[in-house]
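ugh ok fine here u go
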Amino acid sequence: MDIGLNVGGFVDVLLLPSECEAWPAEGTVTDFEIWWADGRRQIRLKPSDSRYLRNDFTDFVERFRPGWPADVGWPVRDPAPVTPDELRALLRSDGSSAGSP
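structure:
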């Protein structure tokens, strides 16, 4: 995503709705907020428009970024690696547990 800076910007797929049909189409012009910036030369963006956010965004924030938005303007620590079970739980869209096939 071109954000007009010399660093890359991208929308984190974990913030988008689980149904890809609800994602913004290529070329969509909309507003974004900086969701994450750390030591890497990239900026993770969060859609400002709730149509483009995951359905359980509030629960997601409580679990993975509990201080947001109170931490806006403060340095963001590099996140710990996500475990395979956490990743499966995040990517699962049918509501079943991460341990199920």
